[in-house]
Design goal:
This protein is of the alpha+beta class. The chain has a single domain, classed as tt1808, chain A, CATH 3.90.1570. The protein is built from five helices and twelve strands.
Length: 189
C-alpha cells in the first residue's frame, strides 16, 4: 500500500491528480493508494450491484467510483454505495464526491480484504466514520469468514447483526431485497 507523505487538506485531495489511474483515500491528511481488489472482492461487489439493480434504479448504485467525505481530513472509496434520489441530485453530474454538506448515502457496503490492516479499516475505523456521517445502513461483507455484518444506525450508533449461511439479510432500507450470505458467497466462488 503506497502512502504519499505530504500532508493534504481536503481541498488538496480534491484537486490532486498524479496522472495515473491510482485511486486514493485521504486518511488524516495522508493519501493512501488503494490496492487492486482481489477477484473475489470484485465479484462480490458486482454481484450485489446486480441484485440491487433488480429492485432500484441503476443510477442510484455506485460501484467503487464515488468518494465519500466522512470528515474534514478523511475521504473513503466504498466498494458499493446506494444513493437516495436527493443525493443523486446533489451530486448533479459533477465529480463523484459526496461532501459533508450533502445527504448521506442510504447504504454503504465494504468487502473486507485479507489482513489485519484491512480488517481494522472496515470493522473499526469505517464503522465509526460511517456512523458519525449518519449512514443509516452499513454492510461488512467478509469473504474469509463467509459472513455479513449488517449494521443499522440507531441513535448515532450501529446495532450489529452477524449473518451466516442461509440467514436472510433483512435490510431496513430495502425490504424487497431477498438475499442471504450463502447467496453471495455461492454466486461468487
Amino acid at each position: 500500500m503506497t502512502v504519499i507523505t505530504q500532508k493534504f487538506t481536503l481541498e488538496d485531495y480534491l484537486a490532486y491528480d498524479d496522472g495515473t489511474e491510482t485511486r486514493y483515500e485521504l486518511v488524516d491528511g495522508e493519501l493512501i493508494a488503494m490496492p487492486t481488489e482481489s477477484p473475489i472482492n470484485n465479484r462480490i461487489a458486482i454481484y450485489l450491484l446486480t441484485e440491487f439493480a433488480k429492485i432500484i434504479s441503476f443510477k442510484l448504485i455506485c460501484h467503487k467510483d464515488t468518494e465519500l467525505v466522512v470528515s474534514s481530513n478523511r475521504v473513503r472509496l466504498p466498494d458499493l454505495m446506494i444513493l437516495s434520489e436527493e443525493l443523486l441530485t446533489q451530486i448533479g453530474g459533477k465529480r463523484a464526491t459526496i461532501t459533508t454538506e450533502m445527504s448521506s448515502p442510504v447504504l454503504v457496503v465494504e468487502v473486507v480484504s485479507p489482513g489485519k490492516r484491512n480488517q481494522d479499516r472496515d470493522y473499526r475505523y469505517k464503522r465509526s466514520e460511517y456512523a458519525t456521517r449518519g449512514i443509516s445502513e452499513y454492510w461488512i461483507i467478509d469473504p474469509e469468514k463467509e459472513q455479513v455484518n449488517l449494521l443499522i444506525l440507531v441513535d448515532g450508533f450501529y446495532e450489529e447483526t452477524i449473518l451466516k449461511n442461509s440467514q436472510p439479510i433483512v435490510s431496513s432500507n430495502f425490504p424487497d431485497l431477498s438475499l442471504t450470505p450463502e447467496n453471495i458467497f455461492n454466486a461468487t466462488k
